């Protein structure tokens, strides 16, 4: 079965410290990978995406993610977080070769940046 | 500016009433989606539509209905058959030209059943 896992539901981190938000998926088909950010009571905004090519992807707001096919992971990282990074982060996986290109979202990770 | 609008932002409903959530996009996107968001559960797909006058059920379609009479509009009706409708509802759209385009989201509607 196809699924997306975000093992950490909440991640507290001090301002200017590095952070990694983990995302793993299970699939036997090709995948496209996305990270979205959601600020309170707002919609989701795309941070970055992996479609093909280099496994290290850079996105907005200083975030980056690395696709690891052997470990079926797509972890999100930032070397130095800011207060404004406090938000909910969702990993999303598009499983190709399905009937309608179904996107499955992980349960989300709440990042809290502590001043 | 191009984007997706959802209205209203907050909606209150009495038990037993149907209510319709609006979603409009001016991005000229072919595909549109409705998701339900509950705390700790991520986003769950309710309905989606890839072209006008066609739509398919998602994972949790029971108690919901949609229509797609125009490319830019995809309203969602929460019926009285939905047992637990209190949630945050998100509408999204995606260009249909390529299967791996990301989705663009609206600001959401928070529905509360009193």
Alpha-carbon Rg of chain B, integer: 13 Å
Helix content of chain B: under 10%
The CA-CA distance between the termini of chain A, in Å, is: 41 Å
Structural class of chain A comes to mainly beta
Low-confidence regions of chain A: none
The DSSP helix count of chain A reads 0
Q: What sort of overall outline of chain B do the alpha carbons produce when their principal axes are compared?
A: globular
The portion of residues assigned to helices of chain A is under 10%
Please give the radius of gyration of chain A in angstroms. 14 Å
Order of helices and strands of chain B: EEEEEEEEEEE
Q: Helix and strand string of chain A, N-terminal first?
A: EEEEEEEEEEEE
Strand content of chain B: over 45%
Give the topology, please.
The complex is a heterodimer of chains A (115) and B (114).
Chain A: E1 3-5, E2 10-14, E3 19-21, E4 24-26, E5 31-38, E6 44-50, E7 56-58, E8 64-68, E9 73-78, E10 87-95, E11 103-105, E12 109-114
Parallel strand pairs in A: 2-12
Antiparallel strand pairs in A: 1-4, 3-9, 5-6, 5-10, 7-8, 8-9, 10-11, 10-12
Chain B: E1 4-7, E2 10-13, E3 19-25, E4 31-37, E5 43-51, E6 54-57, E7 64-66, E8 76-78, E9 87-94, E10 104-105, E11 109-113
Parallel strand pairs in B: 2-11
Antiparallel strand pairs in B: 1-3, 3-8, 4-5, 4-9, 5-6, 7-8, 9-10, 9-11
């Amino acid at each position: 079965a196809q699924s997306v896992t975000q093992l950490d539901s909440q991640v507290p981190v001090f301002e200017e410290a590095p952070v990694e938000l983990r995302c793993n998926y299970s699939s036997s088909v090709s995948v496209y990978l996305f990270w979205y950010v959601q600020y309170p009571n707002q919609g989701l905004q795309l941070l970055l995406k992996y479609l093909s090519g280099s496994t290290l992807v850079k996105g907005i707001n200083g975030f980056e993610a690395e696709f690891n096919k052997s470990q079926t992971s797509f972890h999100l990282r930032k070397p130095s977080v800011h207060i404004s990074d406090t938000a909910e982060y969702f990993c999303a996986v598009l499983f190709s070769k399905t009937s309608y290109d179904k996107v499955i979202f992980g349960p989300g990770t709440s990042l809290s940046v502590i001043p | 500016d191009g984007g997706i609008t959802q209205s209203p932002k907050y909606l209150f409903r009495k038990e037993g009433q149907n209510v319709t959530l609006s979603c409009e996009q001016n991005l000229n996107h072919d595909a549109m989606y409705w998701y339900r968001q509950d705390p700790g559960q991520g986003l769950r797909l309710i309905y989606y539509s890839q072209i006008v006058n066609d739509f398919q059920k998602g994972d949790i379609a029971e108690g919901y209905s949609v229509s797609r009479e125009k490319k830019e509009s995809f309203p969602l009706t929460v019926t009285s058959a939905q047992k637990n409708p209190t949630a945050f509802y998100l509408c999204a759209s995606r260009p249909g030209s390529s299967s791996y385009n990301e989705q663009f989201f609206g600001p959401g509607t928070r529905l509360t059943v009193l």
